[in-house]
Xanthine dehydrogenase family protein molybdopterin-binding subunit
Amino acid sequence: MTTTAESFTHDVHPDAASTGYTVYSLPTASPDKRVTGRDLPRADAAVKVTGKAVYNTDIVRPGMLHAKVLRSPHAHARIVSIDASAAEALNGVTAVLTRNETDGLACYGTMVKDQPVVATDTVRYVGDIVAAVAAVDERTALAALDLIQVEYEILPAVFDVDEALDPSSPTIHPLEPRGGLPPYRNGASASLRSDHNVSYEFRYSTGSPDVWEECDHIFEDTFLFSRMNHMHLEPFVTVAEATDEQIEVWTATQSPFNLRQELGHVFNLPENRIRVHVALLGGAFGAKNGPKADPVAIRLSQLSGGRPVRFCMSTEEGFLTVSQHAAKLIVKAGVKADGTFVARKSTVLLDSGAYAEHSPAVAEKAGYRMPGAYRWQHIDTVCKAVTTNTVPAGAMRGFGATQTTWAGERQIDLIAQRLGIDPYALRLKNLKKLGEEFVPGDAGIDSDLAEGMRLVADAIGYHSRDRSGNRGMGVCVGLKDSGGGNKPAMARVKVTANGDVFLNCALTEMGQGGHSAMSQIVADVLRTSRDRVVYTRIDTDHTPFDQGTNASSGVVVMGQAVRNAAENLRRQVLEWAGEQFAIDPATSVLDDWTVRTPTGEVYPLFERIMEFFGHTGFEFSADGYYKVRNDADAPLAARCVFYEIGWAAAEIEVDPETGRVTVLQLAVSGDAGKVINKIGCRGQDEGAAILGLAQALFEEMRYENGELLNAEALLYRVPLAEDLPERFVSITQEQGHGAGPFGAKGMGEGGMLPIAPAIAQAIADAVGAQLTELPMTPERVFRALSTGGVPGLPPLSHA
């Protein structure tokens, strides 16, 4: 495999001032001092490659007990009785948790709180937790589970969204759970329990529906999106020390402060009685948002007299805890004869599984992102989070944009075939321009979308492609608004008397290089070496608040808070130095823990600090904060901070005898705005692209009668090294229009969005088969070879 990386620099757009974006410049440090944009090793590289890194799975507390859970074998059943007496009597068992020990505990979930710590009256999917045991070791805990007797009354179950929406199907949550909605404006709205087995529904509409009458053609198509497992290497794990008055957890979470808030709700404790520690995460991809192993570990610790309890799920249990959303998307589009897009109406049905989890938030974003990267006069979208008797679905990389990009980009290819227009040309004709509003009231697009299309197309030779030998090419674009619009972030930077720097913020490190990027920002502002900046451990008692590490918003949202903290610190130091040395702080520069004046004087700080404070030492400290302003005109109550955009081009070869697809070339690109760390940006785009490849061709959680058939690593098909493209190109653009430090934008999800539709377009280009369901397995491709995939399509023109 040949892997190459390229860098593209785009000058600031001439009309940038009129678009509402601020284009930041780097501090006036000499080029050899500047660390932002350089290809530096990761700050955590040494400890990770030497095995010294401490992950949440490595946490050990004195006297620690171990937890295991009993899970339901039924998709839907009433719990008639539970007898745990034999388990409680087993030597080495300290506590057994069943519904009898849950009095006073509340349910949890985002917007809709319907998931209990353990099942109370009803189990709602195969894998639902029925009981839990704490014991001196895992073997004893497992033995105790075998002694718990549960009697069930089997209830009817539903396993797909169409069946669940049928009014005659069983109601999975008869009692209305607690819930609430965020504010919506300007065409956006939402409701809870709007329909049978619907926990949350989001609607967005803009423009006049009268434009449907102006359309020359109206097309409606249905697309299916597969359910994926996150497959993070580190499992869900929590160590808890808890009493009825206080909780302390060491846990694998992306959002420690959100978790603290949720645990306070579940256990009816004030937040200042709950302390959350977070070490390094061994992957997450969205799964480690919200409570996972935490409630069970905490309650077992309470029942065990406050002794620490470790609940570490197996990889197989991860399959039964949370997944990505499967989806059915019905998309209706009205277009002019020349290919001009006019109107799009969409119904998105997300399979949210048995509990709401993060489904309302994902549904909101999926519905809002249905316009894609294109210009429509009228948009009308409804997205429903539909409850089924399957594993709960939650946040995953792409967060609703993967589902909508698959359907939206696929339909554009179908429209192109129906109209006899090249799909690349059809996209270019309708792409939004730089600075053009995504939808009325929201921020303008902050990348040149057409330029990104050109880059990836040229990278694989799209315009001179040879379609012989069952080979074809495809080019697609995916777009998602950032999740940073309603995210507040805080940071603190401290510096010692001799210039050593502490960075204190709650951006979790889960493989993306966020700690390195934040440290580089601080080093640039203070004009010091990145090696002098230490990222302190996350502890909610001492770390400043952050909404969470998600939505690729760390570099932009937290990055601005970190930059503001570092700039406030620099200002504080220079003002102090101005008093000490009788110099002008406004014209002086902090450089390697010395102060330099415009006339060339150099004032070392260490000696003067020690002298001033009586040789006791001292720390300067400053805080920073960032949140985009609320906006009454923005549909989601705040304008988008930045748009994460991914472009992809693929060349594939199809074996017509088997339907097997081989990816020969794959080019992926994202716009970093301004690169903070080159290798980090490259890693984000390439990692996202491979996850997109997995969605396109391999990964699918397969259900039969409510049972997950491939809920273990050996049965769940992920890409192997041999599945990687023969030529894999990543292009990091720096178009310079980002809202983050120095013009940066977030990366990490955009590269995943266009991969599956680009490969699907390439399959159609090669053999004329249009696929509408993921993954595009050999069986599905082979079936489409004989049917064309979509009834009524004219032959694909290669003119």
Q: What stands out?
A: The first helix runs from residue 45 to 49. The CA atoms of residues 665 and 727 lie 5 Å apart. The longest strand covers residues 341-353. The two ends are 32 Å apart (CA to CA).
